[in-house]
Amino acid sequence: MSVVRVAGVKKSYLAKGKVVTEALRGVDLVVEKGEFMAIAGPSGSGKTTLLNLIGALDTPTSGTVEVDGRDLGTLSPNEQADLRRDRIGFVFQAYNLIPVLSAAENAEYVMGLKRVPAAERRRRVAELLAQVGLEGLEEKRPLEMSGGQQQRVAVARAIAAEPAVVLADEPTANLDQATGRALVEMMRRLNRDRGVTFIFSSHDPMVLESADRVVRLVDGKVASDERKSPGEPQAASS
Question: Is the pTM of this model over 0.90?
Fold first, then answer.
């Protein structure tokens, strides 16, 4: 079952009415439930733009983007906001945690917006923080935590509301190699144990090696789509 469908998507940026950048030039992509995949490519290839379109943070110039069976182009701004809250989890390279809230409060923030009962929020957060290796740090605030710990809180927040897909934009960019590897391994476990669908944008070789599928963009187009079975080398499928 697909959770994301991108069809014929183009994205251009204008200045004074003229196209100055063609970020995406006709991208087709289908992401199935439970995939652990990465969007790779050099700087300027369009990977972050594609992630923003899937996350309903931007709109395509042409083409369609569907998430969880809903065509984003048919939704009002309020409906898109509801879809982001309910069905899409986000992990940003800058963590984007709320400084005055504890780790537990940050992790349960989206569930609060969805009006999940307090007891259920606490139960889910306690389970998730333990699963991501933060048991005992529930009351710590972001500035009292390392970068790797903050990013683990961000991952817990992203999946606590049980979204259809988690979008992670360069999640290891601000972490040292050992911490980044531990983070990726943790997300891999969540993918396998909980069936969480992850889509990364990354140029980190470690992330790409961990992914079951790597879609490479060059100049705004899909240059290759490589899949592998766990434990097997990647092989190009197109």
Answer: no
